Amino acid sequence: MNTKSGPRQMDDDQAPPAIDWLGNPVSCADCPHEENRVSGLCDLGRACVRDLRARRIDRFFSLNPALADGYLDHPFFEVRSIAARYATPFKLLPLLSDAEPDVRAMAAIRLPAARVLAMRSDPDRRVRIALARRLSGEHLLPLLSDPDYQVRLSAARSATDALLVGLLDDPEPDIRREAARRVPLTHLPALVADPEPLVRIEIARRLEPARLHLLAKDPDFRVRHAVVERLAVDELGPFLGDEDEAVRERALERMTTQKEER
């Protein structure tokens, strides 16, 4: 904790006054880490475990990771959560029952998967989202059917291609779109009639060329444009009369390019 006066570079948060989580001013006078201040491993207003600001707490533990274990029971949840990021993993198990979701989530991220599977039913979605981002394979199955949209979406992004088949009829378009990007090709025709154009665009970008005719008369011009990008040139004729100018121009451009290359 640097207490010297004089000009210094401003922190990225414009160095507001250092206060603790209770709103009291922070000073180095009663700090239990005097040796860290002397050695430059903490800096008042920038890297301080007693500060309210998460950035400053994180900087402190990044400089002093060996001290993190001693702060896992701190009364301020932000300190516990950030300390858990640096602490010895086998010390984190008690934090799975912490009152604060952010603390539970950090512990769930760092502990072995076998230790945190029960947390998939945690009442707070922040914990379930954290698990969806770190688990893999069949461990993700309960999260793929989670009632919360954000949890399912995070799980979908972590899931294997095969697991995404179960999301083809998800009520949320963003999740069906994620499935459409990676689901095995044999399942794509099931989505050609999806009510969301952005899902059908993903289908048009991946569908086998021989099956692109399934989307050739799609009501959304963006889908037809995606079809024109991949359809065999000798099948582009009908698109020269498309109602959308961009679709017509792209079809003509591809046909003209092929003629010039011959």
Q: Explain this structure to me?
A:
The structure is a single chain. With 262 residues, the protein is mainly α. The protein has 3 domains: 12-87, no CATH class; 89-159, no CATH class; 166-262, Alpha Horseshoe (Leucine-rich Repeat Variant). The chain is 42% helix and 0% strand. It has 12 helices and no strands. Helix 3 (77-86) runs parallel beside helix 4 (101-110) and helix 6 (125-134) packs parallel to helix 8 (149-158). The radius of gyration is 27 Å and the shape is elongated. It starts with 33 loop residues before the first helix and ends with a helix.
SSE layout and pairings?
Elements: H1 34-39, H2 54-63, H3 77-86, H4 101-110, H5 113-116, H6 125-134, H7 141-144, H8 149-158, H9 173-182, H10 197-206, H11 221-230, H12 245-261
Helix pairs in contact: 2-3, 3-4, 4-6, 6-8, 8-9, 9-10, 10-11, 11-12
Keywords:
3 domains; mainly alpha; 0% strand; elongated; 262 residues; Leucine-rich Repeat Variant
Helix share bin? 40-55%
**From the alpha-carbon coordinates, what is the Rg to the nearest angstrom?**
27 Å
How is the biggest beta sheet arranged? none
Give the amount of beta strand, in percent: under 5%
First-to-last CA distance: 73 Å
Number of helices: 12
Mean pLDDT rating: 90
Instruction: Sum up the overall morphology in one term.
Output: elongated
Overall CATH class of the largest domain: Mainly Alpha
CATH third-tier fold name of the largest domain: Leucine-rich Repeat Variant
Parts with pLDDT < 50 across at least 5 consecutive residues? 1-13
- Element string (H = helix, E = strand): HHHHHHHHHHHH
Which structural category fits the helices and strands? mainly alpha
Number of strand elements: 0
Question: How many domains is the backbone divided into?
Answer: 3
CATH architecture of the largest domain: Alpha Horseshoe
CATH homology superfamily name of the largest domain: Leucine-rich Repeat Variant
